[in-house]
Amino acid sequence: MATVIRRRRRGLLITSLLAAGSVLYSVFVFLPGQRELSEIRRKLRQQQQFVVASERLKSTIATTEAGLRQVSRYCDRWKCNRPLGRKLPEFLARVTQSAEQHGVTLVRLMPSRTEKLATFDQITLQITVAGRLEGVLALIRELDELPELHWVDKLEITPDPSSASRVACTFELVLFAGFSEKSD
């Protein structure tokens, strides 16, 4: 019986030592490891959120840059018109030169009216040209691509009765110029 008690005591001692070892392992190794692992997971999630946010920022930045480029182009068109009111003779000379380049005869080029609006002037030019249809269309296309703010209004193309390949074209070229400080 003494042997049984000794074995039981020894078994109890080994069990106690194993329990104490597992408690010590849990307290000094497992739990700190879990804390470190939890901290690493938290940092990883945070970095993933930064990556996702930066991907969203890329598209936002690209959209903003595209908008900025569009606004810049728009502003540049307005800025190039600022001196147009004073440089109208130079502008008329460019129109005349363009007509000559396209083989079109400038029948009439006359400023008809200037309308002063709150922040800019609206200058209307009455233009009549005659020539081959291709040349007239090339002239109108070139005038439409001018950097100054403008629009072509009341466009009328009629065939020339004396020649089948020639046409007469009358239109108004409306220019915007002389911006005041209010429009800046």
Q: Over all CA atoms, what is the radius of gyration?
A: 42 Å
Strand order of the largest sheet: 1-2-4-3
Helical region count?
Answer: 3
Major sheet attributes: 4 strands, antiparallel
Measure the end-to-end span.
108 Å
Give unreliable regions as ranges.
180-184
Mean pLDDT: 78
Strand content: 25-35%
Per DSSP E runs of 2 or more residues, the count of β-strands stands at 4
Question: Helicity, in percent?
Answer: 55-70%
Secondary-structure element sequence?
HHEEHEE
Based on secondary structure, the structural category is alpha+beta
**What's the shape?**
rod-shaped
Notes on the protein architecture:
The protein is α+β, with helices and mostly antiparallel strands. Helices cover 58% and strands 25% of the residues. A 4-stranded antiparallel sheet has the order 1-2-4-3. Strand 3 (150-159) and strand 4 (166-177) form a beta hairpin.
